[in-house]
TrEMBL record:
Belongs to the aldehyde dehydrogenase family. It comes from Saccharothrix australiensis. The active site is at 229. PROSITE patterns: ALDEHYDE_DEHYDR_CYS, ALDEHYDE_DEHYDR_GLU. The lineage of its organism: Bacteria, Bacillati, Actinomycetota, Actinomycetes, Pseudonocardiales. The keyword Oxidoreductase applies. This is Acyl-CoA reductase-like NAD-dependent aldehyde dehydrogenase.
Amino acid sequence: MTTFDVIDPATAEKVRTVALASLEETDAAIDRARAAFPAWRAVAPGDRARLLRRFADAVDGALEELAALEVLNAGHTIGNARWEAGNVRDVLHYYSAAPERLFGRQIPVPGGLDVTFQEPLGVVGVIVPWNFPMPIAGWGFAPALAAGNAVVLKPAELTPLTALRLAELALDAGLPEGVFQVLPGAGPVVGRRFVTHPAVRKVVFTGSTRVGKEVMAGCAEQVKRVTLELGGKSANIVFADADLERAAATAPDGAFDNAGQDCCARSRILVQASVYDRFMALLEPAVRGVVVGPPGDEATAMGPLISAAHLAKVSSYVPADAPVAFRGSAPPGPGFWFPPTVLAPVSPTDPAAVDEIFGPVVVVLPFTDEDDAVRLANAGEYGLSGSIWTRDVGRALRVSRAVEAGNLSVNSHSSVRYWTPFGGFKQSGLGRELGPDAPDSFTETKNVFIAH
Ligand code: NAD
């Protein structure tokens, strides 16, 4: 049996050993899901809704336990981890309203009646990354279950603990066996099998753009439905007319939340040249003030990186001669610590300004005018999120329309609300999650004509 040692990123100590599913076990789980599907789709809408509400309540009852597990397994701050468990609960509650609202349409036709049905797909495979193990799992499984599908879910190798607990809570809440299964395992084994197994009718993948392309290519073999949520290198655009104090005070949140391991991290700050010096003077104390420390402490704002390998990758973007404008602090270790770091001046073509570093490293680039800001923001292949700081409503709207990204916020850094759609432009993704339409993306539209 292959196993994986789960490590606490804050201490580098082993937390637990988890058995990894083999190919045979994956096939067996997919078979169980396939067998469970007909009865699950036949559950009356109101009853399916009730079961999802019970699942949500079970998550709520275990909120502190789930949050503590995520602090231990992923090094998330306790405040973030509570929000993440609460997000699973809320997403379940939100989509528990969907079974009774999976409307079709009645379309006028001559000679009969034409109606559409939203039919569930069957088995859906959800592949989750390590950076937000709970929310990203919930964004996939909640609407998929609500639409009447059976779900097999693979957490990231590094962070399986909360997903395993969620599967137990689903059973406790009364979801039938086989309807929601969690399979810890290697990406190229379990994840890949979701792609190649013909009974899996859709893959929801969140992770790197590199693996996402592989998943998409694999799904093409069977014309399998696929949703991709991939990487980002989002811009935080600060115009000269903005509330500079607020823009600077919140920029660390936008870039360093979850230690920068956030696909929506605003890791490029674009500042209008006329206020560049003033902005940097305001940014410095904000960055130095980020409290980096044990993730279980209530006062901590930023915890460690996920692993030693990831720490090495992030560190490679800040070599000894890197243009560090200023940086915060971090504990010396053990654990995978990296201080919040601001790089400037940097060329827009520098790897630090182009690559998704996925750590607490932000670059600051000056721009001249609105066109220049949009040009810089749209450089590169990513297009996930971004922020625009200005007091000019017209400019806010013009720039919002011009930036090629799926999730923008004006005068804030918020990007993911479960009741609004979320996803990427360009190579940041394909399809949308969350929002009112997510259950539809776990169905096929069927048209039926009935002659008079
Ligand atoms: P990753 O691509 O390495 O892994 C993601 C998941 O895919 C893991 O569960 C992994 O085991 C699995 N996997 C690996 N190889 C596979 C294969 N050949 N076939 C099928 N599955 C396979 O990504 P990661 O390092 O875990 O996560 C970080 C990345 O995720 C970043 O690029 C980040 O931007 C992205 N991300 C995107 C979003 C979004 O919503 N757009 C959200 C969070 C993270």
